[in-house]
Specification:
CATH superfamily of chain A: MetI-like
CATH architecture of chain A: Orthogonal Bundle
Shape of chain B: globular
Number of helices of chain B: 18
Oligomer: heterodimer
CATH topology of chain A: MetI-like fold
CATH class of chain A: Mainly Alpha
Shape of chain A: globular
Chain lengths: ~300, ~600
């Protein structure tokens, strides 16, 4: 039935869809409405993102990162609500800028990997044969590499690295899972009648790929990307905690959590690492709950709505 | 390859030498320098003042503060690690002690006389000193140490100028002689005359090899195998107040008393030395796991008033400095070549950089006053040579700006940073080592320099790992204009070791006629005249300040935490004074924080 729907003309397709089958966005929304936890998470997520991105515009990067030796390790007070760190910097500014950087990194990696992965996955899955073979062997090769070790090695040799270079380095090794998933799904789709029919009618390959195959696998890809977002936040945090993350002047949630590596900070100065840790846990949980709702929306059998 | 060796050598020297630094009389030292220094040092005695009644015996627990494991080469000829030497000094002393100025004195296991004209030094060993296996110690054991180091199969780092300055060592090394001709042993083997090629005052300041190794014990073991032999690693012997009972490689060493010790039987039953990560020391001290441990200055504010332990302090011969890259190392001729066209060659620029740094604030806020703004490159530990009239580069941004204006560095395009005299953008690349708090200091100094309009960027945009840092700085990476390093002078403050025209450790590669003339005087035979020597030291510091090839940043003191049950312990190194046999305890176990109300 589903395939038939797609082969119909644009007009019938849309009208049919709104009657029988809600759009994917609609399905997600219905899911959220029926799952209070997911809805709460969604609202919280939006609020956090908005607060962080709007809030961080009030902080000047240079000012917030200025070392102030007279204010080292001060506990929370009226002038510094979250206290100060070992360099005498106000933790509120560090939190806002750090959270913003971490979010940007997570989103950046997810989007970049998504674009590259989907493109390559589509090409491999759609054309099949030799193209598929070559691409898949390249992917196999990359996935064989010890990803974390190579990222660490690259980070320690390139000069002047920043949020952007960090995103690029991590993405260079992270797109393969997206490509694999897309390729598997595309492979399935491309053997279906509607693709064959479209081909026979002389539609160009790229049009088939992006206007016909992609929308059909879109829901799964979106689910995958949502869940990846949480994981990518973890990559940045993990690397920074290990000491291979962003430079000193670029605060991130990882650098803030890194303060807990020092036993004295862990014992005596929770204001330096606790807020960032809580934020990460909350974010991860929110993304997870929303992701679950999106996942259910993508699969009609699992829907609660 | 040679570079690598030199690197290893200089680093190890710097490391081992730190371990050898001790402190005899703080009061005297402090009175000569700034009041801040005086106040701080007065707060930290060099001796424990525990008056309680001692218990009989007891085992002292000493912390070895390493992140990983100790190497465990317990033979002074082969040991390259300060941690190993800190351990073996408990059971393997040397034969000459020193006074508070690090000059050899007559209180050790041997006494000495010297003859300037004949360029000889005569050592006489006291009677009745025995190795732990009962065999008597003779000066033939010292000769053996020389023979091992000078042997052609020897691969350690001790075969250096200090050893080759002894007549006949090089011939022995090349296999042309089967004995070292400059070492003349008396028939009873208790008197040794050492003949030197050159004889200058530095020889009396830790300038000769004084660690004997037992010839009878190593009999028949080829020099090549000594380093890894179990007699070095598992069953080492010495003639100190304690002897080895058990060694767990890399982890701990258990020592028991040596009743035959020549200065009298020790009061303790034994000593255990155990490895612990420096980060864990504060908590371990509070829990009474150790009696003695080196304490981090940055952790100090959280443990300002300890209940169950107290702090002892000693001034170090350490100083940190900001050096400028001003030339190249000529590998073929082994000397530094100054390049007057280098980027940092303008002396006013260098002085301005010095005046812009607020070292006092770094010392007080970040190191809690346990480091001090260094006014000169001679540390207060060598107070008799220090030029105390020199104010040094104290924080004065206005003066820095004035100097930069004079030198032609002006901000033309109003971006807040100065351009070079030709109007081109000017930025300085600065190499800094990783380390606790290094980020904060680096960032703070960059801010300092920004205040006066200088753009300073970190080498590769970040802090550099220790080995990579020295690799880059030693090999004169052209990208580096400026670097922050540290140096431990050790016993002998002779500036030639670090700033000399022929010193590969002179990473600035700066040489000048004025400095060279002074340094040659300091190492010449004229230097036997104490007044002349002192004057030339003062001249050196003045000239160094004027020419500013480097800006001294901080001096430091070493902080040791000692449990309140320890009696008669001093922070002084065993190289300076033997006192391990006098240490006593006043409780059966280290006092815990919870034991004290």
């Amino acid at each position: 039935m589903e395939n038939l729907n797609i082969k119909r003309s644009e007009k019938t397709y849309t009208s049919k869809k709104s009657m029988n089958k809600p759009s994917f966005g609609r399905a997600i929304w219905n899911e959220l409405l029926h799952d209070k936890l997911a809805m709460g998470s969604f609202i919280l997520l939006i609020t956090i993102f908005a607060t962080v991105f709007i809030g961080s515009t009030f902080f000047d990067m240079g000012e917030a990162n200025k070392v102030n030796l007279g204010l080292i390790n001060k506990p929370p007070s009226s002038s510094h609500i979250l206290g100060t760190d070992a360099s005498g910097r106000d933790m509120v500014g560090q939190m806002f800028l750090g959270a913003r950087n971490s979010f940007l990194i997570a989103i950046g990696i997810t989007v970049l990997c998504g674009i590259v992965g989907i493109l390559i996955g589509l090409i491999a899955g759609y054309y099949g044969g030799l193209t598929d073979n070559v691409i898949m062997r390249v992917i196999d090769f990359i996935s064989m590499l010890p990803r974390l070790m190579i990222i660490i090695a690259i980070i320690s040799i390139i000069p002047n690295y920043s949020v952007i270079t960090f995103v690029l380095i991590v993405s260079a090794f992270s797109w393969i899972s997206d490509a694999r998933l897309t390729r598997a799904k595309t492979l399935q789709q491309s053997s279906l009648d509607y693709v064959q029919a479209s081909k026979t009618l002389g539609t160009r390959n790229f049009v088939i790929m992006f206007r016909e195959v992609l929308p059909n696998i879109g829901s799964i890809v979106i689910v995958n990307l949502t869940l990846n977002l949480a994981g990518n936040m973890g990559i940045e945090t993990g690397l920074t905690v290990l000491g291979f993350g962003l430079p000193f002047n670029t605060p991130s949630l990882g650098t803030l959590i890194n303060y807990a590596m020092n036993p004295e900070n862990l014992q005596r100065r929770p204001w330096q690492w606790l807020p960032a840790s809580i934020l990460i846990v909350v974010m991860m949980l929110c993304i997870y709950f929303v992701g679950q709702a999106v996942k259910r929306a993508a699969d009609a059998k699992q829907r609660v709505a | 390859m040679k570079m690598k060796r030199l690197l290893a050598l200089s680093l190890t020297l710097a490391l081992t030498v730190t371990a050898f630094v001790g402190c005899g009389k703080n009061e005297e030292v402090a009175s000569k320098s700034g009041s801040a220094l005086q106040e701080i040092m007065a707060k930290y005695p060099s001796k424990t003042n525990n008056d309680a009644t001692s218990i009989k015996g007891g085992v002292l627990k000493v912390a070895v503060d390493i992140d990983s494991a100790f190497e465990g080469i317990f033979n002074p000829c082969f040991s390259e690690s300060a941690f190993d030497s800190d351990i073996y000094k408990w059971f393997m002393p040397n034969i000459l002690s020193c006074d508070e100025n690090f000059v050899f004195d007559q209180d050790g296991a041997a006494t000495y006389t010297y003859d300037q004209n004949a360029r000889t030094m005569t050592l006489k060993l006291k009677e009745g000193i025995k190795w732990h296996d009962g065999h008597p110690v003779t000066l033939d054991d010292l000769v053996f140490a020389y023979e091992v180091i000078a042997h052609k199969d020897y691969e350690g780092i001790r075969y250096d100028e200090q050893i080759t300055n002894v007549v006949g060592v090089e011939e022995y090394h090349e296999g042309k002689a089967d004995k070292i001709s400059g070492l003349e042993l008396s028939d009873d083997k208790m008197t040794l005359t050492i003949k030197f090629k050159e004889f200058f005052p530095s020889i009396l300041v830790g300038g000769i090899w004084v660690d004997p190794i037992p010839r009878h014990y190593y009999e028949g073991i080829p020099v090549k195998e000594m380093k890894s032999h179990e007699k070095t690693r598992k069953y080492p012997i010495g003639f100190g107040p304690f002897k080895v009972k058990n060694i767990v490689p890399g982890e701990s060493v258990e020592l028991v008393r040596n009743d035959d010790y020549y200065l009298g039987a020790p009061k303790l039953d034994g000593v255990t030395l155990t490895v612990i990560a420096p980060d864990l020391i504060p908590a371990a001290m509070e829990e009474g796991k150790f009696d003695i441990a080196v304490f981090s200055q940055q952790k100090y504010p959280d443990y300002m008033e300890p209940k169950n332990f107290s702090y002892l302090g000693e001034l170090d011969t350490y100083f940190s400095y900001t050096g400028f890259k001003l030339g190249k190392w000529d590998q073929n001729n082994s000397k530094n070549i100054y390049d007057p066209n280098s980027k940092m060659a303008n002396v006013k620029l260098r002085q301005a950089i010095g005046y812009a740094i607020d070292n006092n604030k770094i010392a007080n806020e970040l190191y809690n006053g346990l480091r001090f703004h260094a006014t000169t490159v001679i540390t207060p530990r060598h107070s008799s040579y220090q030029n105390t009239e020199l104010a040094g580069y104290t924080y004065d941004p206005e003066k820095a700006k004035k100097l930069l204006d004079e030198a032609g560095y002006k901000d033309i395009n109003n971006d807040g940073y100065r351009e070079d005299p030709n109007g081109k953008p000017f930025s300085i690349t600065w190499a800094v080592m990783e380390g606790p708090g290094a980020d904060t200091i680096a960032q703070y100094k960059i801010q300092n320099w920004k205040e006066v309009g200088l753009k300073v960027e970190l080498y590769n945009g970040r802090l550099t790992e220790f080995n990579a840092f020295y690799d880059a700085v030693m090999t004169d990476d052209p990208k580096i204009d400026m670097y922050d390093a540290a140096w431990s002078t050790g016993f002998d403050p002779n500036p030639k070791n670090l700033w000399g025209a022929e010193s590969s450790s002179n990473f600035t590669r700066y040489t000048s006629d004025t400095l060279n003339a002074i340094m040659n005087d300091i190492s010449s035979e004229k230097a036997w005249d104490k007044e002349f020597l002192s004057k030339r030291y003062h001249d050196f510091q003045q000239a160094f300040f004027d020419e500013a090839p480097a800006i001294p940043n901080l001096w430091r003191m070493e902080l040791k935490a000692v449990n309140n049950r320890v009696k008669n312990y001093e922070v002084t190194s065993f190289d300076i004074k033997q006192f391990a046999h006098l240490i006593e305890l006043t409780a059966d176990a280290p006092i815990k924080k919870t034991d004290v109300k």
